Amino acid sequence: MAGGVSLMQAANRDEIFVTTVRVWKNLSFQDVAKKGLKYGDEDPEAEKKQMEEYTEQYRPLLDFFTKKTNDLVKEVIISNRLVTSPCAIVVDAYGYSANMEKLLGEHKCLSR
After folding, report:
1. Where are the domains of the chain?
2. What CA–CA distance (Å, rounded) separates 92 from 37?
3. Residue with the larger pLDDT of the pair 46 and 42
4. What pLDDT, in 10s, does the model give residues 50-106?
5. What is the pLDDT of residue 64?
6. 48-86 burial, b if ≥16 CB within 10 A, otherwise e?
7. What's the rounded Cα separation, in Å, for the pair 5 and 89?
8. Could you tell me the CA-to-CA distances from 31 to 90, 92, 110 in Å, in that order?
9. 15 phi, psi to nearest 5 deg
10. What beta strand segments (E) does the chain contain?
11. Does the reported pTM lie above 0.70?
12. Which of 109, 105, 96, 112 is nearest to 33 (CA)?
């Protein structure tokens, strides 16, 4: 991440803060678990070309996972965010993370 700072969220309220306040004192927040992560040093044209090549190369694998996870995930794609892991599960840019859904579920139980 070019010129970036990583924040480790230690408390439940941290995720709520970062999700709600997208910019603070001229600092933009990005959730690495959400779609659309940008590091700031990307070359969009080269990256797009490379992703298209990988998508074609791994089309049978993508089709297999898409078919097997049809009811469980929205889409299966090739990603440039992975280096040592074979896969990652991310949520839409404005979706709730698994932790946030858990927090909201607990809140509903407590408010009954």
Report:
1. 1-37+90-112, 41-78
2. 11
3. 46
4. 889 999 999 999 999 999 988 888 888 888 777 777 777 777 777 777 777 787 787
5. 93
6. eeeeeeeeeeeeeebeebeeeeeeeeeebebeeeeeeee
7. 22
8. 10, 10, 27
9. -65, -40
10. 23-24, 27-28
11. no
12. 96
